[in-house]
Amino acid sequence: MANNIRGQQDILAKLNIKRLNPMQEEALSVIPSTTNTILLSPTGTGKTLAFLLPLINLLDPKSKDVQAVILVPSRELAIQIEQVVRNMGSGYKVNAVYGGRPMAKDKIELKHNPAILIGTPGRLADHFEAERFTTKYIKTLILDEFDKSLEVGFEDEMKYIISILPNINKRILTSATQGVSIPKFVRLDKPTTINFLKERYSKLTVKTVISPPKNKLNTLYDLLKHVGNEPGIIFCNQRETIEDISAFLERKRVGHGCFSGSMEQQDRERSLIKFRNGTYEILIATDVAARGIDIPEIKFIVHYDLPYRSEEFTHRNGRTARVSAKGTAYVLQWENERLPDFIDAKTANISKKISRQPRYWETLFISGGRKDKISKGDIAGLFFKQGKLKPNELGVIELKRDCTFVSVPVAHAKRLISDLNNTRLKKKKVRITIV
């Protein structure tokens, strides 16, 4: 037990977390001694860490087989959980597999079995059908955001995967939504429920912004001038609306990224990277961004299109006012538009305008990553020594398997490319370009 506590403290230190929140504390006390657990907690409250900490303690360090499977509804959530496990530095191999990337890449990464296998149901089912690993030693099954997986039509794949895992002795289901019926094939007998959904929105303010014309674009622009250079997400119902807003903001020279299910995986990933590191302050997105993506704390969200259901309203709002922070959800309402019953909001006064400053950060691509034995320290050393950047001029470094993304001041970006392109990092000559 003492070793577990010591290991947990080491992990939290690596993640730069001083202490667990009450939901995580309860999960850590309940999950180890419970066969079936349902964890209900709002988006952004740290459910990933809440199930990963007890999972790490369940694994056998001597085993060379897959011991735990984590099923997720989206590629972004698979990537996010994989990165958290890596950052924990537990020593256990982890891999995420998902549709939208070549199967050949999966095969290379899975030459050695991971202890923890994360994936979307469709891609995981493909691997199990091909018998790439034995299911004999898989003891733990986690269905993260299980309601979303059921909602987006993964039921058949989930049923198949669960049916071929004969030795599961621990199931953990997580959700940010209450009242979802759990199918019988999950075999969730007498679960213990950890419910923190009542903690929802204590620091969230919901405000309506009235748009006199039916076309809300100019009202949206006024709102963005009101909030200034704060990071935020504009939620839309359709991809076409995202395209309209993007073209409008382009004309107004407001930097932004787009995110929708119809985009290529690489484009989606790069939009999130640039949003995380501050290159983009605004993300225009469909509801696919309402949960299951790794983004920093944001100050506001905008319901450009009214959500169809209360669940969508809840999940969108969950991107701001997370944990103990404050945030605002703005509902953009055409003058003659009726609000759904589930939206209760005050009217905002956005007459006060703040002039938006030009963006500070640019994102650079480096053609080397973990597989080349390159570390974040190597990247930082390159930019400080040869790039002559000051410590406060190096932004977020995102190290991937075969590449790296680094945020640097816009003012230095072209000089850095000129000075550093084709430099050697470890034994690899790397290309450096603007993303």
Ordered list of secondary-structure elements with their pairings:
Blueprint: H1 2-14, H2 22-30, E1 36-40, H3 47-58, E2 68-71, H4 75-88, E3 94-97, H5 103-109, E4 116-119, H6 121-129, E5 140-143, H7 146-151, H8 155-163, E6 170-175, E7 192-195, E8 204-211, H9 217-227, E9 232-235, H10 239-251, E10 257-259, H11 265-276, E11 282-285, E12 300-303, H12 310-317, E13 327-334, E14 346-347, E15 361-366, H13 376-386, E16 397-399, E17 404-409, H14 410-420, E18 423-425, E19 428-430, E20 432-434
Parallel strand pairs: 1-6, 1-7, 2-4, 2-5, 3-4, 5-6, 8-13, 8-14, 9-11, 9-12, 10-11, 12-13
Antiparallel strand pairs: 15-17, 15-20, 16-17, 18-19
Helix pairs in contact: 2-3, 6-8
Describe the structure.
The structure is a single chain. The chain has 3 domains: 2-199, Rossmann fold (3-Layer(aba) Sandwich), CATH 3.40.50.300; 204-347, P-loop containing nucleotide triphosphate hydrolases (Rossmann fold); 361-434, RRM (RNA recognition motif) domain (Alpha-Beta Plaits), CATH 3.30.70. It is 33% helix and 20% strand. The protein has 14 helices and 20 strands. The protein is globular, with a radius of gyration of 22 Å.
